[in-house]
Write a structure and sequence with these properties.
The protein is of the alpha+beta class and 392 residues long. It folds into two domains: 1-53 and 257-390, no CATH class; 72-245, no CATH class. It is 57% helix and 18% strand. It contains twelve helices and ten strands. The chain has helices at residues 3-16, 18-56, 77-86, 119-124, 149-157, 202-208, 227-241, 252-295, 297-305, 310-347, 355-381, 385-390; strands at 60-65, 90-105, 108-117, 129-132, 144-148, 167-170, 173-181, 197-201, 216-221, 247-251. A six-stranded mixed beta barrel has the order 2-3-8-5-7-6. Strand 2 (90-105) and strand 3 (108-117) form a beta hairpin. Helix 2 (18-56) packs antiparallel against helix 11 and helix 3 (77-86) crosses helix 7. The longest helix has 44 residues, at 252-295. The chain is elongated. GO terms for molecular function: transmembrane transporter activity.
Length: 392
């Protein structure tokens, strides 16, 4: 028999056994859909992480005291502000403090991350002011604060009518809200606290902390300078400026490389998990085909008696298995894209679907059809015509 006739026979056989076909199809659809959805999700997460870095720029360094060296655990505030003067590659710095505080509004309390910042902190992090204004270096010890829009929503739900100019109690200190900024997820070089936190002048934070001092600093370097040069200048400067203070310096480029390596591993892991579903689906196809061979033993005997060769029988059952898996691969691809779109919409990610994953998924579904269909097809081809005709 020619392949075209085998195709027609296979299609008719699958159509006649709709329930069995759907059961076998479902396993492949879930397998292919899982692979595409998981790989696309991994790619979208990677894209979001990379977007956070590109939004801030790659000309940034994160500076923190080395906690393992036995040196001071804080960066002197005055020394941090003088860094651009003594480090030619550095153009701007944003020292900050970080602590956890209790915020009280109308008798209701909740805990937040509080950042003590300078005016440059808003510029370097590219924070968007939604209402009011950001903190100024002129505020110094003034009891002002800026909150994220998430905190604003929380305060309004707690009964606050107007946020700007309102006063809140932060660790038993009364602060006046002077601005609301758009929340930013903790990613890239941004510190935690910009997602749902409160920002106050850094000088005020020193008064509120039990162990005051700059805990970290963001530094922006010139575009024509290498980050290694800027990092070495900062390390050398702090070693001279503050009793041999040892600092760790991380660049955006380093973090990007680390994140990309982690995301590649994450995507491979998700793909491997999805592949397990595909293997299970392939085993399901093989079982269904074996049942089909058993149920159609007499049909096989009649075809053999009418002159069909072993290869004709094998080709027909292989074609059925291949058709099942290809159809499952196509449907699973659409299902995987749909799931990926739903994940993107739910998490507010930029939608992305891996076309490579779709192409590989369809090809793999064909290979699954051939691999898991070969054994049932061979069993059907090896049936003795006489024994097959005797079966009921």
């Amino acid at each position: 028999m020619i392949w075209g006739e085998n195709f027609s026979e296979a299609l008719g056989s699958l159509w006649d056994a709709k329930q069995r076909t759907l059961l076998a199809l479902l396993g492949i659809v879930i397998g292919i859909g899982s692979v595409i959805a998981m790989v696309s999700a991994g790619e979208m997460v990677k894209n979001q992480v990379m977007k956070a870095f590109t939004d801030m720029g790659t000309d940034l360094l994160a500076v923190e005291p080395n906690q393992d060296s036995g040196t001071p655990r804080h960066i002197p505030f005055a020394a941090a502000l003088r860094a651009p003067k003594y480090c030619p590659a550095i153009t701007q710095v944003a020292p900050y403090t970080r602590s956890f505080v209790e915020v009280t509004n109308k008798g209701k309390s909740f805990n937040l991350t509080m950042l003590g910042v300078t005016q440059s902190f808003g510029d370097i992090n590219k924070l968007k002011v939604l209402k009011g204004r950001f903190l100024s270096d002129l505020d110094l010890l003034m009891p002002f604060c800026v909150i994220t829009d998430k905190v604003e929503k929380r305060l309004i739900e707690g009964g606050m009518q107007k946020v700007l100019g309102a006063q809140i109690l932060v660790d038993n200190r009364i602060l006046t809200i002077c601005g609301v900024i758009r929340h930013e997820p903790m990613s890239g070089m941004r510190p935690d606290g910009l997602d749902s936190g409160i920002l106050i002048p850094i000088s005020m934070s020193f008064r509120m902390m039990s162990n005051p001092g700059v805990q970290a600093m963001l530094a922006k370097f010139r575009e024509d300078a290498a980050w290694q040069t800027a990092a070495n200048q900062i390390k050398g400067y702090f070693a001279r400026a503050s009793r041999h203070l040892d600092v760790n310096v991380r660049s955006a480029e380093q973090l990007i490389d680390q994140q990309q390596a982690q995301m590649r591993l994450f995507t491979l892991l998700l793909g491997a998990i999805g592949s397990i579903s595909l293997i299970v689906g392939g085993v399901g196809v093989m079982n269904v085909m074996l049942v089909s061979v058993t149920e159609r033993t007499k049909e096989i005997g009649i075809r053999r008696a009418l002159g069909a060769m072993q290869k004709d029988i094998q080709q027909q059952f292989l074609m059925e298995s291949l058709l099942l898996c290809v159809a499952g691969g196509v449907i699973g691809s659409f299902a995987g894209v749909g799931v990926a779109y739903g994940l993107a919409a739910f998490n507010h990610w930029d939608f992305f679907v891996s076309m490579d994953a779709i192409a590989i998924g369809v090809v793999v579904s064909c290979l699954v059809g051939i691999f898991f269909g070969f054994y049932p097809a061979r069993q059907a081809a090896r049936l003795s015509p006489i024994d097959a005709l005797r079966s009921e």
